[in-house]
Write a structure and sequence with these properties.
Layout lengths: L6 H8 L14 H8 L4 H8 L21 H18 L5 H13 L3 H21 L5 H9 L2 H19 L1
Length: 165
């Protein structure tokens, strides 16, 4: 197995960990409305599950401004995985795709393959736990990475052949 980017290891360590939530169970409807008033879904999720934030901000705030920063994209991937586990939704593919692109630019096809396969496992995990979700949506999210994955695997094999010579 290729050297880990660290993201997969952190993800596996946190897979079964309980995510601490802000206690809102005892709030009345009026108190909850006051708590949520004027906040987006992402802001509420960030308050309830701080692990879904990157530097105290939602991942969407980094989508354009940090799209060339591999470390920030990997942090966004981690946050998306935390959100996925907290609420059972598909993680946003953008950050995984950007990380794959940046790994390709750094000529690290093994890590590009790894980040794509991590995303695919995340989709499978959501589909296995949440039967309410549309299976076609999960398949479509995975399919958008198929060409990139195939090309990255070819590059990885080519690179490993050069190393063994």
């Amino acid at each position: 197995m290729p050297e880990s980017s660290g993201l997969a290891n952190a993800s596996e360590r946190n897979r079964d960990a309980e995510i601490p939530l802000i206690e809102i169970n005892n709030l009345s409807i009026d108190e909850y409305i006051e708590f949520a008033n004027g906040k987006t879904y992402g802001e509420i999720l960030g308050l309830l599950v701080p692990e879904t934030l990157v530097d105290g901000k939602g991942t969407w705030e980094f989508a354009e401004t940090a799209k060339h920063d591999l470390f920030k994209m990997l942090e966004c991937c981690r946050a998306e995985l935390e959100g996925m586990r907290a609420v059972g939704q598909f993680p946003a593919p953008h950050y995984f795709e950007r990380a794959a692109i940046l790994f390709r630019k750094q000529k690290e096809p093994a890590k590009e393959v790894e980040i794509i396969e991590l995303y695919w496992r995340a989709i499978d995990e959501v589909m296995a736990k949440n039967t309410q979700l549309n299976e076609r949506q999960g398949s479509a999210l995975k399919q958008r990475f198929e060409i990139r994955h195939s090309k990255a695997k070819q590059l990885r094999e080519k690179q490993s052949r050069k190393v063994s010579l």
